[in-house]
């Protein structure tokens, strides 16, 4: 059974914690396909549930996996996004398009600068599949605290 710990982090049986990160703190590094993001937003709205967390690099909050889910969250005007906070020591990454560098350093640089890769330019390989969840859309649209509880905090 999933449960919230005292910091507001959702604990999964697999021990991969889901953190609720403010939408405006998450940094994309790739563009997305608008029609796919719209499809995901429609699915999330219809089900009233968020099912798969977005994977982020824990220090920069750069997206590792989930650019389309992130855009769906924007379209739905969510305040919080369920996320996994990971390190590149746990994740392998490669470029899937010729002519692009797909290193952790370049991905974080692009996330910070706003210079986005084309869609599906990088591929992140995780040690285990991401956990699934069933988080109510009403929870994710709630008023956002000054700082989201969890490991990563912005001043």
Structure description:
The chain is of the alpha+beta class and about 160 residues long. It contains 4 helices and 10 strands. A hairpin with a 5-residue loop joins strand 5 (about 55) and strand 6. Helix 1 crosses helix 2.
Provide a short characterization of the protein structure.
This protein is an alpha+beta fold and 155 residues long.
Q: What spatial form do the alpha-carbon principal axes imply?
A: globular
How many distinct beta strands?
Answer: 10
CATH class categorisation:
Alpha Beta
Instruction: Report the C-alpha radius of gyration, rounded.
Output: 15 Å
Instruction: Report strand order across the widest sheet.
Output: 3-7-5-6
Specify the structural class.
alpha+beta
What are the low-pLDDT stretches, counting only 5+ consecutive residues below 50? 1-14, 148-155
Average predicted local confidence, pLDDT? 86
Task: Note the gap between the termini.
Answer: 33 Å
- Major sheet attributes: 4 strands, mixed
Index terms:
about 160 residues; two-stranded antiparallel sheet; disordered C terminus; 4-stranded mixed beta sheet; Conserved hypothetical protein from pyrococcus furiosus pfu- 392566-001, ParB domain; disordered N terminus; alpha+beta; 10 strands; about 25% helix
Annotate the secondary structure layout.
Blueprint: E1 3-4, E2 10-11, E3 19-22, H1 34-47, E4 49-50, E5 54-57, E6 63-65, H2 67-75, E7 80-86, E8 91-95, H3 104-113, E9 122-126, E10 135-136, H4 137-140
Parallel strand pairs: 5-7
Antiparallel strand pairs: 1-2, 3-7, 4-10, 5-6, 8-9
